[in-house]
Amino acid sequence: MSSVTVARTRPSVPEDLLVGLRRARDRVDRDYAQPLDLDELAAVAGLSKYHFLRCFARTYGRTPHAHLTERRIERAQDLLRSTNLTVTEVCGLVGYASLGSFSSRFRQLVGSSPSEYQARWALTGAPRIPGCFVLMHGLSDRADRAIPE
Questions:
Q1: What is the pLDDT of residue 138?
Q2: Which class for 58: exposed (0-12), middle (13-18), buried (19 or more C-beta within 10 A)?
Q3: SS (HEC) of 39-99
Q4: What is the pLDDT of residue 121?
Q5: Measured at the alpha carbon of residue 20, what is the angle toward residues 16 and 21, in degrees to the nearest 5?
Q6: Which residues does the chain have with pLDDT short of 70?
Q7: What gap in Å lies between CA 92 and CA 107, rounded to an integer?
Q8: How far is CA 101 from the centre of its chain?
Q9: Count of C-beta atoms within a 10 Å radius of residue 71
Q10: Could you tell me how far CA 20 lies from the centroid of its own chain?
Q11: Of 22, 76, 77, 143, whose Cβ has the fewest other Cβ atoms within 10 Å?
Q12: Residue 129: beta bridge partners?
């Protein structure tokens, strides 16, 4: 007697919803430093908030909040590696109001505190961009934010 394993897969999200889900994910990627809530993101996708939450998680494998958190921490890593901003300044720039929340979430996802991470990169990384430049001009490589010569 052979044992057959049947893989259960969740039903996929209808294709007509994918455009709205992508639009909401792009909004998170672009506006990660702004306060974003589930109602706002669901409206961008054109769905009710609970349906949006289920579809987003099914499509991307994580909730919108988890995606936002990961995006913020990724951006914080970039800033800690490449600038001489303090951890407190980075915390505010990536959308956290609480340094404690930022630090604990950073440690949870990265495995070290923001200060330890920054110190490790200070020893081995490239020269840092002055914080005053970042605060005035940002780190965007978009043409519309480029600094005139």
A1: 60
A2: middle
A3: HHHHHHHCCCHHHHHHHHHHHHCCCHHHHHHHHHHHHHHHHHHHECCCHHHHHHHCCCCCH
A4: 82
A5: 100
A6: 1-11, 125-149
A7: 17
A8: 15
A9: 19
A10: 18
A11: 143
A12: 83
Cα radius of gyration rounded to whole Å, the chain: 19
Token pair listed for 134:
């970042």
Token pair of 138, please? 């940002």
Sign of CA dihedral 40, 64, 60, 109: positive
CA distances from 119 to 24, 52, 76, 137 (A): 35, 40, 14, 24
Copy the structure tokens of residue 38.
Answer: 């589930």
Q: What is the pTM of this model?
A: 0.77
Cβ atoms of 24 and 42 within 8 Å: the answer is yes
Token pair for 50: 């609970």
**Tokens 């294709």 found at:** 15
Enumerate the β-bridge partners of residue 83.
Answer: 129
Contacts 24+ apart (CB under 8 A), 43-51: 44/20, 45/17, 45/20, 45/21, 46/20, 47/17, 47/20
| Contact present, 84 and 130 (Cβ < 8 Å) | yes
As given in the structure block, the two tokens for residue 130 are 């002055």
The two structure tokens encoding residue 106: 């950073």
